[in-house]
Each structure stands twice: as C-alpha cells, then as structure tokens.
C-alpha cells in the first residue's frame, strides 16, 4: 500500500506574539475557513519561536513586504502580509488567512514551500526579498 507523502516543509520562524495571535486566528477560523485555518494552525505548530524583539530582517512576518516567485509560472509578485481585517488586494495587502499568506509566514529569503491550493493543486513559492 502506498502512502501519499506530504512535501518536505522548510523550517519557519515566528515571534512569540505572532505565534499566539496566529494560532488564535486559526482556531477561531476553523468553521468558516477550515482548510486554510488548519494549514495555518499546522504552520504555527511546527514553527520555531523567536523572542518578540529578535532581529528577523530576512524572515516573513506580519506586516512584511514580500517579493516571491510562483515556481510553476515563474511570475514574481510583491505583497504585504496582513491580518484578515487589513487585507486589500487592490493595495497588494494579502491576508495570512489565505493559502499564499499562510504559506509565506515565517519563511526566510531563499526558502521554497509547497502547499495545496483550495482546488487541491500543489503550488510552490520561493521568497525572493523581505522588507519591514
């Protein structure tokens, strides 16, 4: 019997406060957005934790401007990662409670992550640049 294997996930790093807020957001969103909330909760479970005052300049954090490449299309995009109530796609502000947002949080420049989209396709993103 063959078992479907999950992609190898890169190590991620979040601050203590971000882990608390994002874990709470994921838990409170399980009924409305089960798939992405479950993904975000899993990311917070596996994340390494840094002190709130740590210098994480190359790490995607809440409020970070992130340039990433969609590895299937080669297209690069720049977005700001925000909480759901701050999301505004016309201003390139994407919610952490989207598949792309949940995939990006905690990644460092140069890292690639694979994840499933809502239509169950596998997508891979690579972080090119982070600014705060």
Q: What's the layout of helices and strands?
A:
Blueprint: E1 13-15, H1 16-28, H2 34-46, E2 48-50, E3 65-70, E4 76-82, E5 93-95, H3 99-104, E6 112-116, E7 122-131
Parallel strand pairs: 1-2, 4-5
Antiparallel strand pairs: 3-4, 3-7, 6-7
Helix pairs in contact: 1-2
Keywords for this entry:
132 residues, alpha/beta, 3 helices, 24% helix
Question: Can I get a quick summary?
Answer:
With 132 residues, the protein is of the alpha/beta class. The strands form two sheets. Strands 5-4-3-7-6 form a five-stranded mixed sheet. It contains three helices and seven strands.
Description:
By secondary structure, this protein is an alpha/beta fold. It has three helices and seven strands; from the N terminus they run E-H-H-E-E-E-E-H-E-E. The strands form two sheets. Strands 5-4-3-7-6 form a five-stranded mixed beta sheet. Strands 1-2 form a two-stranded parallel sheet. It is globular.
């Amino acid at each position: 019997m063959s078992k479907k294997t999950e992609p190898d996930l890169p190590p991620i790093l979040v601050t203590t406060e971000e882990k608390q807020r994002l874990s709470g957001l994921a838990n409170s969103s399980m009924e409305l957005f089960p798939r992405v909330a479950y993904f975000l909760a899993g990311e917070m479970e596996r994340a390494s934790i840094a002190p709130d005052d740590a210098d994480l300049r190359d790490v995607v954090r809440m409020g970070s401007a992130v340039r990433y490449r969609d590895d299937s299309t080669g297209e690069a995009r720049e977005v700001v990662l925000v909480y759901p109530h701050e999301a505004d796609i016309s201003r390139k502000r994407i919610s952490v409670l989207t598949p792309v947002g949940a995939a990006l949080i905690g990644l460092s420049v140069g890292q690639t992550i694979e994840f499933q989209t809502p239509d169950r396709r596998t997508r891979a993103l690579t972080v090119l640049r982070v600014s705060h």
